[in-house]
């Protein structure tokens, strides 16, 4: 009886907090932290269904934010993002391969962490795992590494950005190039400012599109991702996330039809709040078992790779400032 009552209280508190997030009373980083705390205290309150809702909330928030943007600004950011994303991916894969050897992290686990760092965290890991025929434990460890570093990034990136005096656009570019998952990229941009959010979202979505070509070339990059005939071990079928298409259509609609711009601003405002809800649900779905299974060596490898990626991306931002 007492256990059932406590479960009801925790569930009610969690739902009430979701409402506060949606109404805009909670900051992105606070929502993620509260979700993590709730998961450690009570466990996964919402279960698998909560994680599905979190993914849909994230996707809808990105589409909604597109309703408040203009085509010209998105195109300006997208042209640069394409080149910089390619440069960053090459850097991560090269450095990651060397670091994996140094830390003696081998096989699919090393490759998954590299791919997750290079492109978009969990989404890239999920797409690349079948090609590498990665085991469930390897996928879980890679996801655990990415989740921890994503949570850290959401808190420390805005602090570092302000300390270094990064402008809104500079921070958005840095976050999009250096942080793994889309949720944390957009969350960090939201914490930093409106322009940072716009640049971070656009750049990150362009970066995410590199999942498709990377999965296709994985067998040529890593020998253990090929079978004896030299063919890819797994299927390389990767779909473009629907929210990227939705984002583009929302931007175009708001730019072509001026009458939609006022409504688009309202949609974009609430889309940011939906993102905060998504971060809370992601944090609340944290698995202690997954974190414990990560292990020291893969985590240190992933952390070092991420720190070097962040430093490289920051160097790119400062180099671009010199040419302005």
Plain-language structure description:
With 324 residues, the chain is an all-alpha fold. It has one domain. The chain has 15 helices and no strands. The N and C termini lie far apart (66 Å). Residues 227-232 have low confidence and may be disordered.
Element layout with pairings:
Layout lengths: L1 H21 L5 H15 L4 H20 L4 H33 L3 H12 L3 H11 L3 H29 L3 H11 L3 H11 L1 H15 L2 H11 L20 H15 L4 H24 L3 H5 L3 H27 L2
Helix pairs in contact: 1-2, 1-13, 2-13, 3-12, 3-13, 4-5, 4-10, 4-15, 5-6, 5-7, 5-15, 6-7, 6-11, 7-9, 7-15, 8-9, 8-10, 8-15, 9-10, 9-13
Task: Looking at this protein, list some descriptive labels.
324 residues, mainly alpha, 15 helices
SSE-based structural type: mainly alpha
Beta-strand content estimate: under 5%
Q: Choose one word for the global shape.
A: globular
Compute the CA-based radius of gyration.
Answer: 20 Å
Helix content: over 70%
Indicate the mean pLDDT.
82
Q: Uncertain spans, ≥5 residues at pLDDT below 50?
A: 227-232
Tally of strands: 0
The SSE order reads HHHHHHHHHHHHHHH
């Amino acid at each position: 009886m007492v256990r059932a009552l406590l479960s009801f209280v925790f569930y009610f508190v969690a739902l009430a907090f979701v409402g506060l997030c949606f109404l805009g009373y909670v900051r992105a980083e606070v929502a993620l932290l509260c979700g993590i705390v709730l998961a450690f205290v009570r466990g996964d309150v919402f279960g698998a269904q909560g994680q599905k809702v979190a993914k849909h909330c994230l996707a809808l928030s990105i589409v909604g934010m597109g309703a408040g943007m203009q085509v010209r600004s998105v195109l300006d950011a997208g042209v640069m993002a394409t080149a910089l994303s390619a440069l960053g991916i090459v850097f991560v894969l090269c450095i990651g391969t060397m670091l994996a050897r140094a830390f003696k992290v081998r096989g699919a686990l090393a490759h998954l962490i590299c791919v997750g760092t290079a492109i978009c965290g969990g989404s890239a890991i999920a797409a690349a795992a079948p090609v590498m025929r990665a085991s469930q434990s390897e996928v879980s460890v890679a996801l655990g590494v990415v989740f921890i570093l994503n949570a850290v990034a959401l808190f420390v990136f805005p602090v570092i950005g302000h300390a270094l005096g990064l402008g809104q656009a500079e921070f958005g570019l840095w976050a999009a190039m250096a942080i793994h998952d889309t949720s944390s990229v957009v969350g960090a941009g939201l914490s930093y400012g409106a322009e940072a959010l716009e640049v971070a979202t656009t750049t990150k979505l362009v970066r995410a599109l590199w999942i498709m070509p990377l999965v296709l070339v994985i067998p040529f990059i890593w020998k253990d991702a090929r079978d004896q005939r030299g063919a890819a071990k797994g299927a390389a079928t990767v779909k473009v996330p629907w929210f990227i298409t939705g984002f583009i259509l929302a931007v175009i609609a708001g730019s072509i039809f001026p009458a939609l711009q006022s409504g688009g601003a309202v949609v974009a405002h609430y889309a940011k709040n939906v993102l905060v809800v998504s971060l809370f649900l992601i944090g609340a779905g944290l698995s202690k078992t997954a974190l414990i299974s990560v292990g020291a060596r893969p985590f240190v490898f992933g952390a070092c790779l991420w720190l070097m990626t962040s430093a490289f991306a920051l160097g790119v931002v400062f180099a671009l400032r010199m040419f302005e």
